[in-house]
């Protein structure tokens, strides 16, 4: 069913379920390639990972910036949706927080190349950053509150501070293979624990 938001506007056509599934598969493949090879990875590498032709990628995302922004939004949504799911499935709220932080780190590794890929579109980058904060800070806060309520971590850690600290630890990951931010992030998480 088509929806119209304003009179006189052409109705927007909803994507078919299989088209959405294919797009999600393509975005997940692109995200995985961006984590290992950076946002400048060849499109053919992304196409091979997704099991599609390069034309399919260009049909959905005419420019690299379009693809990077779509991956960014896809990963933000995946992180946002993962929080409650992990909390429901994990052995403990702290275990859910740790698993969520792993997803967040994967996202951050991809995100670092976003500014370069978008080049001069500062307003677009800022809008994405606001979207990122609006979607993920509440999820992180919920995980922290659950772990504090369960007596697993000290209360009072602010989600924004934790996310910013993790983000700062991820800087430089791609420029020095000797640096592993995940090890330091694990130390940071252990520092939140009640002994």
UniProtKB/TrEMBL annotation:
**Which residues, as ranges, make up the DNA-binding region of this protein?**
42-61
> What is the designated name of this protein?
DNA-binding transcriptional regulator, AcrR family
Single annotated GO MF: transcription cis-regulatory region binding
Which keywords appear in this protein's UniProt record, sorted alphabetically? DNA-binding, Transcription, Transcription regulation
Q: Where is the HTH tetR-type domain?
A: 20-79
Pfam families to which the protein is assigned, alphabetical: TetR_C_43, TetR_N
PROSITE patterns xrefs = HTH_TETR_2
